[in-house]
Amino acid sequence: MTTHYLVLSALLFAIGAVGVLVRRNAIVVFMCVELMLNACNLAFVTFARQHGNLDGQLIAFFVMVVAAAEVVVGLAIIVTIFRTRRSASVDDANLLKY
Amino acid sequence: MNGAIEAPTIEYGQLMPMLLVFGAAVVGVLIEALAPRYLRKAIHVPVTLLSLAGAFALIILQAVRDGVPEQASAMGAIAVDGPALFIWGVILVLAFISMLLINDDDQFVAQAAAVPGSPEEEDAVAQGGAHTEVYPLALFAIGGMLLFSSANDLLIMFVALEVMSLPLYLLCGLARRRRLLSQEASVKYFLLGAFSSGFFLYGMALVYGFAGTVDLGGISSALASVGGQDSLLYIGVALLGVGLFFKIGAAPFQAWKPDVYQGAPTPITALMASGTLVAAFGAVLRVFWVALGNLDWDWRPVMWAVAILTMVVGAILAITQTDIKRMLAYSSIAHAGFLLIGVIATGDAEQNSGSLSGILFYLLTYGITTVGAFAVVTMVRDAGGEAGHLSRWAGLGKRSPLLAGIFAFFLLAFAGIPLTSGFFGKYAVFAPAVSGGALGLVVVGVISSAVAAFFYVRVIVLMFFSEPAADGPTVALPSVGTAAVVTIAAAATVVLGVFPQPVLDLADQAASALFIR
Amino acid sequence: MEPVEIIQHSGGVIGVAWLMIALPLLGAAILLLGGRRTDRWGHLLGVVMSLASFAVAVLAFVELLGMSGDQRRREIELFQFIPGMVDMGLLIDPLSIAFALLITGVGSLIHIYSIGYMSHDPGRRRFFSYLNLFVAAMLLLVLADNYVGLYIGWEGVGLASYLLIGFWQHKPSAATAAQKAFIVNRVGDFGLAIGVFLIWTTFGSVAYGPVFQVAGQAEQGVLTAIGLLLLLGACGKSAQLPLQSWLLDAMEGPTPVSALIHAATMVTAGVYLVVRSGAAFFPVGSTAALVVTVVGVATLLAGAIIGTAKDDIKKGLAGSTMSQIGYMMLGAGLGPVGYVFAIGHLITHGFFKANLFLGAGSIMHAMNDEVDMRKYGGLRKLLPVTFVTFFIGYLAIIGFPLLSGYFTKDGIIETAMHHSPVLGWLAVLGAGITGFYMSRMVFMTFFGQKRWAEDAHPHESPAVMTVPLIILSIGSIFLGGYLVLGNTLANWLAPAVGGPEEPIEFHFVTTPGIATLVLVAIGAAFAWMKYGRAEVPVVAPRGSFVTTFARRDLYGDAINESLLMRPGQWLTRLAVFFDNRGVDGVVNGIAAGIGGTSGRLRRIQTGFARSYALSILFGAAVVAGALLLVGNI
Amino acid sequence: MELYLPILVLAVLAGGFAVFSVAIAPFTGPKRWNRAKLDAYECGIDPTPQPVGGGRFPLKYMITAMLFIVFDIEIIFLYPWAVAFDQLGVFGLVEMVLFIATVLVAYAYVWRRKGLDWD
C-alpha cells in the first residue's frame, strides 16, 4: 500500500511549490522549498520500499544533509537582506528588472 | 550481522584533480581559522592558484600517461571519461583566470554582515576589512562544478549541484558597491535555485521509482527492460530537465540570469557565466545522452522547443538592454540555446562524437571570451563603481582605444565573426547539427546569431562612433591579475580563431569514445 | 605567355617568408602591450622590425632571382585555417615580392623619417606600433596565397589606416576623416567579401592556384559578377570613383602616414587585386576589364581636376594620388602589357609620390604645420634639399623625359591608345592637367614672393628626414628607366601574371608621347604665368564655377550625401525612434521591429522573484505535459 | 490504466486544493487582531524586556541555531556507521575519521572567528 505515501508526497510537493508562489515572506517561501525537499524524501523512501533496495533511503539521508546546508546558507542570505531593507518580503527586492 | 561488507574500490588517482580542489578548499577554511587577518590573502592566493594549476596538471598527466579510463570510478559513481577530462580542463582554465579576476582588490564587500551605509560598514571599510572567505567558497564551487560535470549517478549529481550552487549564492551577495542590488541578486538566485533543485530532486525520485536505481547506466538499461511507456518516467525526466535547464539558463527558466548576473560582483559573474555553464552542460549531456539516450525520440521534440525559445528570447531581449552586464547575461542565454542545438543533434556513434566535440570546443571558446568580457567590464568605472549603463560606454573608443578595441573584439567573438574563436565554436556546433538532421534549429540559430550580432555591433558603434560624455567613466588602471585575464582571453580568442586546429583535434579526441556508462 | 605553375616550396629564405609578416606584427604587439615602458626605445624597435622585414624580402628576392623563370612561383604552406576550406599559405612570386620590396623598402624609409617628424609627439610609440601593424597587414595582403588571406590583410590595412588617420583624435576633423574612411571602405570591403564568397561557392576554393586553374570553366555571368565585386573592393581601397571621397579627408593623418599608406602602398592594393586576379576575372575584352578601364580614366581625370584647385598642399597631392592610381587602374584593365606598366607605374609612383609627400611634410615641419600653399612662396633658398628633391619628384610625376614617371606613364598611355583611342587621348589630357597642377604647386611653394606669416621661421629639416628624401628622389630619377628599358619588369613579372608573346618595345618618339609632352609644357607654362610670375593672393579668389567645382572635390561628398548618407540617416532615425531607451545606435529596419518586440517582451522580466518562480513552474508543467504527449503518441 | 496515473491526478487535485485553501483563507478567516496576537511568542509570557521595534531577537539566536543544525546533521552519517561498524572494517573507520576531521575544520573556523562567543 505504498501508493498512499506517494500520494502524500505529491501533495506535500504541490503545497510546497504553490507556497513558494503565493507567500511573500522570504522565510516562509524558503520553508516551502524545504517542504518540497521533504516531499522528495518521502517519495524516495517509498520507492525504496517498493523496489526492495536501500538506495532510496540512502538518498534520503543525503537530501537531509543537503537541506540542512541549504537552510544555513539561505537563512544567512535572508537575514542579511532583512537587516538591510527592514523587510523580509521577496516582493520588496525588486530593483533588478527588465 | 556477520560477515564484513566489502570495502568499495575508489580510484583515487583518477579523482585526484577534484580531490585536490576540494582539499585546497578545506585548507582555505583552515587558513581562515588559523592565520592572522593580514596574512590570509597572501596565503590564500598561492594555495588557490596552485591547487587549480596542479589539478590541471594532474588531468594532463592522466590523459597522457594513463589514457582515458574505460570504467567509471568510485563504484560507478563518477565517470572520468574523455569528455569529462576535457570539461574538467576547461573548467579549471576558466576557474583559474576567473580567480585572477576575483583576486583583484576592491570588488568584494568589507563586512558582509554590516548593513549598507551603516557606521559598522564605514568602520569595516576604514579598517580595510575584506572577506577572504571568497577564496575557499569559490574553490568549493569549482570543486562542485568538476563533480557536477562528471557525476555518473543522479545522487552524486544532486549533491554536486548543491556544492556548486550554495557557495555561489553567498558569493553573489558580496559585491562591495551597489550592495542592495548584490543582496537582491543573492536572495533571488538562492530562492529560485533552491526551488529548481526541488524539481530536480523530485524528478530524480520519480526516475528512481521507475528504474529502481539512480545510476545513469542503470537507468539506461532499465529503459530497455521496463518499457518506455511510463508516465512516471516522463514526469521524472521533465522535472530533472527543469533543474538542469535552470542551471544553463534555458528559456523559460532563464529569468534569474539577467538579474543575478547584473547584481553579483563582476568576477563572480564571470565565474558563473563560464564555469557553471560548462559544468551544467556536462551534466545535461550525461543525463540526456547516457541515461536517456534510448529515449531521445521522446525528449528531442521538447528540447527543440526549449532550444528555439532560448535562442530567440536571448537574442531578442538583449537588444533593448541598457546595462552591459544584463546584455551579456542575455547573450549567455542565447549561447546556451546554441549549445542545446548540439545536445539535440544525436544519431549514430560518429554523429554523437561530432556533436559532442563541437559542444566541447564551443564551451571552451565561449567561456574564455566571457571571462575576458567581464574582466573589461570591471575596468570601466564610475565614481560609484562599475559603469554599468550602456550610455556611459559611449565614446569609450576615443578615451581608451585599446580597451574598447579588445572589448569590441570579444563582442565580435560572441557574434561569431570569422577570425575569432566564436566563429569556429558556432561552426563546430552547427556543422554536425546539420548532418544530424537539426537543420531547422541551425536556421533559427543562424538567424538569432544575426539578431545577436546586431546588438553586439550596436555596442561597438556606441563605443567608437559616439561622442564621449563630458563626465564619462574612467578606465581603471588594471591590476596585474586583471590585465593578465584580459590578455589571456584576447590571445585565446585570437589563437582559437586563427589556428583552432590543435584544440579542435583535442576536442575530437576527447569526444571520440563518447561517455562511459 | 601564360603564368607558370605554382610550385610547393620549403626551406631557404622563402620557407621562412612568414617572418616578413611576423616581425612587424611582433613589433606592433610589443609596442601596444608594452605601454609606456617602451616609450623610450619604441620607435627604434619599429624601425628595426621594418628593416628586418625588408632584409627578409631582399633575401627572398635574391633567392627567387637564383631560380629559372618557370620556377619562380613558390607556395609555402603555413597551417590549416578553416578545416577543409582554407589552407593558409604564402605565395612568393615575382608580383608579390615586387610589392613586398616596395612596402618594406619605402615603409622602412618612412619609419626612419617618422623618427624625426614625430619626435615631439607624445604618442610616438603608438604611432610606430600602428605603422608596424600596417606593414604586417599589407604584407599579408600581398603575400597570401588565397583570397581569404588577402581579405584579412585588406581589413588589417583598413584598420591601420583608420587608426592612423584618426591619430590626432583631439582634432575633430581627424576623427571625422577617420570615420569617413572607415565607412566608405566598408562599402568596398562589403563588395570584396561577397566577391570572395562567390568565388568560394563557385569554385569550392579560395586559393589562387586552384581558382585560376578552373576559372575559365565557370559561366561568363558569374565571372563578370565576381570581377565587378572585386572591382568594388578595389575602388574602395584605391579611392577610385565612386568611392574616392575619403582619400582627400584622409590627409588629416600625420604626413608620413599620407606618404606611406595613402600614396605609396595601401591605396595601390586595389591595383594589386585587379592585376592578381586579372587573368581569371579581368581578361582583355571582358566587361569587367572594360569597367576597370573606364573607372581608371574617370578617376585620373577627376583626381587631376581636383588637384588643380586645392590650396592645401597635402590635398593637392591626394588629388594627384587619385589621378595616378587611375592611370594604374587603366593599365590594369589592359591585359598583360598593361599589367607591366601598371605595376611599373605603381612602383615608380610609390617612390616619387612618397618623395613629394615627405617633401610636403618637410615644408610643413619648417612652416609650423601650415598647409596652405598661398602662405608659402619663395622657399627654395631656405629649404634647398627639400626643394631639389621635391623638384625631382615633380619632374618625375609630370613625365619629364627620361625620369621615372615618363617611362611608366607613357607606357600606359601608349598601351591605352593601342587599345582604344578615346581612352588614350583622355589619358593624354589627364597628363596635361597633371603638368598644370603640379607646376602650380611647385611655383606657389618655392618660387615667387614670400607670403608666410610673421611667426614662421622656415628652416631645413634634420638629416633623419632629408636622407630618406634623397634616397627616394634617386629612385624617382632612375627607377622607371631601369624597369621599362630592356624589358626588365616585363620579364620579371611574366611568370606571375603572364606576358606578351614578343618583348615590349618602348618608343621614345610617338604621337601620343609628343602630344603629352606638349600638353604638359602648356600646362606648366600656364601655371608659370598664373602662379610663378604673377602675384599669388593670400586669400583664395572666388574663381569660376569650374574652380568651385574642383575645390568641392567635384561634389563627391554632396553626391554621397544625397545617395548614401540621407537614406542611411533616415533609417537610423527610424531605428532610434524604436530604440525605446534612447541609447543611440545605428539600427536598421528589420531590427527596429525586433527592437520593438524586445521592448515589450522585456517587461515580462518584472523583477519579482515569485513571478520567476511561476515561470519555472509553468515551464515545468509544459515540459512535463509535452513529454507525456510525445511519449504516449 | 497505468499504475501511476492516479498520482498525477492526485497531484493536480493537491495543487488545486493548495491554491484553493490559500486563496480562500483571507475571505473566510476572521480578522480580529489584538495585542497578544501581534506579540512575539515566548512561552506564553510577555517578552522581557520589551524589545524595541516589534519583538525581534538578537541575531545570536539565529547563529546558534544554524550552528546547531550544521553540526547536528552529521549524526545522520555517524548513526548508520555506528550500527554497521563491525562489518565496515578499516575502510569505514578511515572514511569516518576523514569526515569528522573535515567537520572539525569547520568547527575550528567557527571557534576562531568567535562564532561560539555569546558576547
From TrEMBL, chain A:
Record EC number = 7.1.1.-
GO molecular function ontology, one term from the record: NADH dehydrogenase (quinone) (non-electrogenic) activity
Q: Name one GO cellular component term.
A: plasma membrane
User: Main localisation, per the record?
Assistant: membrane
Reaction it catalyzes: a quinone + NADH + 5 H(+)(in) = a quinol + NAD(+) + 4 H(+)(out)
State the compartments where it is located.
Cell membrane; Membrane
Record has Lyase as a keyword = no
Q: Which residues cross the membrane?
A: 6-22, 27-47, 59-82
Name the Pfam families for this protein. Answer: Oxidored_q2
Q: Which InterPro entries match?
A: NADH_UbQ_OxRdtase_chain4L/K (IPR001133), NUOK/Mnh_C1-like (IPR039428)
In the bilayer, the protein is annotated as:
Multi-pass membrane protein
Coiled coil located at which positions? none
Q: Which terms are listed as keywords in the entry?
A: Cell membrane, Membrane, NAD, Quinone, Translocase, Transmembrane, Transmembrane helix, Transport
Self-association and partners: NDH-1 is composed of 14 different subunits. Subunits NuoA, H, J, K, L, M, N constitute the membrane sector of the complex.
Q: Which PANTHER family match?
A: NADH DEHYDROGENASE SUBUNIT 4L-RELATED (PTHR11434:SF21), NADH-UBIQUINONE OXIDOREDUCTASE SUBUNIT ND4L (PTHR11434)
The UniProt similarity line reads: Belongs to the complex I subunit 4L family.
Protein's UniProt name = NADH-quinone oxidoreductase subunit K
TrEMBL record, chain B:
Q: Name one GO molecular function term.
A: quinone binding
Q: Name one GO biological process term.
A: ATP synthesis coupled electron transport
Its annotated function is as follows: NDH-1 shuttles electrons from NADH, via FMN and iron-sulfur (Fe-S) centers, to quinones in the respiratory chain. The immediate electron acceptor for the enzyme in this species is believed to be a menaquinone. Couples the redox reaction to proton translocation (for every two electrons transferred, four hydrogen ions are translocated across the cytoplasmic membrane), and thus conserves the redox energy in a proton gradient.
Q: Which Pfam families match?
A: Proton_antipo_M
Do the record's keywords include Phosphoprotein?
no
Q: What is this protein called?
A: NADH-quinone oxidoreductase subunit N
Q: Provide the Gene Ontology terms for cellular component.
A: endomembrane system; plasma membrane
Domain of life according to the entry: Bacteria
Principal localization?
membrane
Coiled-coil regions, chain positions: none
Which intervals hold domain NADH:quinone oxidoreductase/Mrp antiporter transmembrane?
Answer: 151-450
Provide the taxonomic classification.
Answer: Bacteria, Bacillati, Actinomycetota, Actinomycetes, Streptosporangiales
TrEMBL record, chain C:
Please verify whether the record's keywords include Membrane: yes
Question: Any idea which UniProt keywords this protein has?
Answer: Membrane, Transmembrane, Transmembrane helix
Domain of life from the UniProt record: Bacteria
Gene3D superfamilies, per the entry = 1.20.5.2700
Which residues are in the NADH-Ubiquinone oxidoreductase (complex I) chain 5 N-terminal domain? Answer: 86-128
**Which chain regions cross the lipid bilayer?**
12-34, 41-62, 95-115, 127-144, 190-208, 220-236, 257-275, 281-306, 327-348, 383-403, 423-443, 463-486, 506-528, 612-631
Which GO-annotated molecular functions does the record name?
NADH dehydrogenase (ubiquinone) activity; NADH dehydrogenase activity
Q: What is this protein called?
A: NADH-quinone oxidoreductase subunit L
This chain's source organism reads Thermocatellispora tengchongensis
TrEMBL record, chain D:
According to Swiss-Prot or TrEMBL, what is its membrane topology? Answer: Multi-pass membrane protein
Give the family this protein belongs to, as stated in its UniProt record.
Belongs to the complex I subunit 3 family.
Q: What is this protein called?
A: NADH-quinone oxidoreductase subunit A
Q: Which InterPro entries match?
A: NAD(P)H_OxRDtase_bac/plastid, NADH_UbQ/plastoQ_OxRdtase_su3, NDAH_ubi_oxred_su3_sf
UniProt enzyme class? translocase
Transmembrane domains' residue ranges: 6-27, 61-82, 88-110
Q: Which organism is it from?
A: Thermocatellispora tengchongensis
In the Enzyme Commission scheme, what number(s) does this protein have? 7.1.1.-
Q: Which HAMAP family match?
A: NDH1_NuoA
Catalytic activity, as annotated: a quinone + NADH + 5 H(+)(in) = a quinol + NAD(+) + 4 H(+)(out)
Q: Which UniProt keywords apply?
A: Cell membrane, Membrane, NAD, Quinone, Translocase, Transmembrane, Transmembrane helix, Transport
Q: Which domain of life is it from?
A: Bacteria
Give the encoding gene's name.
nuoA
